[in-house]
Amino acid sequence: MPSQKTLDYLFHTLLYQHGLEATRKFIWDRTRAIRREFTIQRLDGPQVAEMLERIARYHALCLFRFSQLDEDNFSIRQEREQLDKCSYNSLLTATRSDLYLQLCSR
To answer: How many domains would you assign to the chain?
Structure first.
């Protein structure tokens, strides 16, 4: 399973050292791969929900920062699609986790 360390590296080390513009495409690709891995392995739970929330915040930041660029340099549609998928999966994962915890506590 992709770990918190992977996201920490992407967001705290790579992004901090090189900036949003220089790392946007690489981080976009890596976070998409992380989400796909969650789907393929059918992973969920509080840790997955938290990681998806972090990825969603990244996409929201990119939308805010780059939405004024032309379509050749930034696709609002693709970024919005990624944000929507992250948000949806995060809510779904968190809901499943809450339901599971409620069932186990009975």
So the answer is: 1
Task: Look at residue 29 and tell me if it is in a domain.
Answer: yes
Name every residue whose Cβ is closer than 8 Å to that of residue 17 and which is 6 or more positions away in sequence.
Answer: none
CB contact at 8 A, 55 and 10 = no
Joined together, the tokens standing for residue 36 give 């796909």
Cβ contacts of residue 32 below 8 Å, gap of 6+? 82
Tokens of 17: 């050292």
pTM summary value: 0.81
Q: pLDDT, tens digit, for every residue of 8-40?
A: 999 999 999 999 889 988 999 999 999 999 889
CB 76 within 8 A of CB 63: yes
Q: Which domain holds residue 85?
A: 22-105
pLDDT in tens, 62-78: 888 887 776 767 777 78
